[in-house]
Amino acid sequence: MQLPSPIKCIDLAREIDAILIGDQDRMIRGINEIHKVVEGDLTFVDVEKYYASSLASAASVVLINKETECPPDKSLLIVKDPFQIYNDLIERFRRKNGLTSAVDPTAIIHPSAILEPGVVVGPDVKIGANCYVQSNCYIGGGTQIGERVIIDAGTTIGSNAFYFKDYGTHREKWHSGGHVCIEDDVFIGSLCTINRGVSGITRIGKGSKLDCQVHVGHGVEIGEDCLIAGQVGIGGKTIIGNWVTIYGQAGIANNLVIADRVTVLAKSGIGHNLEEGKTYF
Fold it and tell me: Could you give the residue numbers annotated as active site?
């Protein structure tokens, strides 16, 4: 998630009452969870066994709950509850999705695109040439849709990530600051659900085809020319290569990598990475 304008570390430290270690003038340009960070991003860590990986990540600024040695290319902000600060910042800077009309006035829809009655389009959505969106679809804020995309009736794109922080006594929802990108020539059947990323992008690659009632979790990346049959569920942040075929009712766990040209047979349960060109059941 990119910020509308950069924030200086020292300014944020004062605002959230944090102890600052490292370069006070370092600029924060984005906010991302650890899986998605790039240089200029702020992320958080609140479990000591993950300190090393967070401090070695591409993030430039880390919210952390304990003073520790700061790498030379980073700044640390020490606070009591890093997750809460991170979550509050996402909520503060993301574009709110509340709608007062069926099509938000900030949406950009190509004149050749067809939207049937009952389609709802959120803010900052882009829909390309020769797309066809059937009745009662919801296209959430920030969604980017390429050209010649077909979306059948009742599908939801850009719903909130199913992602919760476990405090032991309660679970708190991660605010979803990411969005969905659907590339050219994609087909999406009826009653599919495609979650937006927590802080990054959920992507459906060029030419891929989804049958009815497919669920794509937050931050999933589906490659080009994939075929995914009905009632498949794909867990958050899983990466699927090109020319992958997944048959009906297969369940795929989160954080996996499925290589190019894999075939997953019907009703399979996938809990580990899959090698290129193989068939699994």
Answer: 218
